[in-house]
Structure formats: structure tokens, C-alpha cells
Design brief:
GO biological process, one term: protein ubiquitination
Domain F-box: 30-77
Order of helices and strands: EEHHHHHHHH
Shape: elongated
Helix content: 40-55%
Number of helices: 8
Strand order of the largest sheet: 1-2
Oligomer: single chain
Pfam families: F-box-like
Protein name: F-box protein 48
Pathway: Protein modification; protein ubiquitination
Largest sheet: 2 strands, antiparallel
């Protein structure tokens, strides 16, 4: 058994012997998801940040199934992105996309928009300086917000 992390007095453990994406039939005596009710596993997973949740998704098939099947886990993270990409998230949800798909589609865009609005790229003088940065397309309204923020600086 290997200690992974501790958060809010709940310890998370994974098996050293369990390879990535083991079958749910291969049991590990320390896999909380096999012992606890599904609601408790979801509570534990809901405490994870987006990077940790994506890592947990790859741990084993049981964790993958629990996380993948719970739209609620993805909704919370998507609402954070929605603060910066309201129009995009609302459009994806109206189109019928799941919270997970909506989050994946807008996560990088939301991060980039937030960085632009905070002035991280205020010192950029030409497009050549952006070549080594992780960029994605932004809509006209977003560029308008960025321009307004730059003019106020």
C-alpha cells in the first residue's frame, strides 16, 4: 500500500501492486472504492482538484467508472471555468453536452482568458512572442474584454 495524499483528514491510498487501469475484479484490500458505498467514494472524489481527478480517473477501472459516470464531479469544476467562459459553457450545455465534455472543451480557454485578463500577456509586443505559449482560439467578445482590460491598465 502506498500513501498518496491527505486532504481534510481523509487519507487516500492506492495499491502498489495494482497497475494502471486494472480490472474491477482484481481487488485490493486498501481500495476504498471497493469497501465504501458509492456515495462515499463520490464524496472523496469531489474533494479533488481537476488535475487530481483526472489522475484518479486513470488509476483503475473501478475509479474510472465511478468518476466517468458522475456528471456531478465534473459540474463543480465546470462552474469554475464558467466564471470566465460563461457564453461558451452555456452554449455547450444548451447543445446537450455533458459537464465533462463541456469542461474539457473550455478548460484551456478559460485558463487562457483569465491569464489575459489578469495582464499576464500585457508585455507581449508581437505574435512571434506567443509562439512558445500554449494558446487557443478565443471569440470576439473575449477579445473585446481583453482589449478593455488592457486599455484600463
Amino acid at each position: 500500500m502506498q500513501y498518496v495524499s491527505k486532504r481534510n483528514s481523509i487519507a487516500y491510498f492506492v495499491c502498489e501492486r495494482s497497475p494502471i487501469l486494472t480490472s474491477p475484479k482484481e481487488t485490493c484490500p486498501h481500495n476504498f472504492a471497493e469497501i465504501m458505498p458509492p456515495e462515499m467514494s463520490l464524496k472523496i472524489f469531489s474533494e479533488l482538484d481537476i488535475d487530481s481527478l483526472c489522475s484518479a480517473l486513470l488509476t483503475c477501472k473501478l475509479w474510472h467508472q465511478i468518476i466517468e459516470d458522475s456528471d456531478h464531479l465534473w459540474r463543480n469544476h465546470c462552474l469554475t471555468v464558467q466564471a470566465f467562459c460563461q457564453q461558451e459553457v452555456d452554449g455547450d450545455r444548451q447543445y446537450g453536452l455533458s459537464w465533462k465534455v463541456t469542461l474539457v472543451r473550455n478548460y484551456r480557454r478559460g485558463f487562457l482568458k483569465r491569464e489575459w485578463l489578469r495582464g499576464r500577456y500585457s508585455n507581449i509586443r508581437s505574435a512571434d512572442e506567443l509562439l512558445d505559449r500554449n494558446m487557443c482560439s478565443l471569440d470576439v467578445e473575449t477579445w473585446g474584454e481583453i482589449l478593455e482590460a488592457e486599455l484600463e491598465r
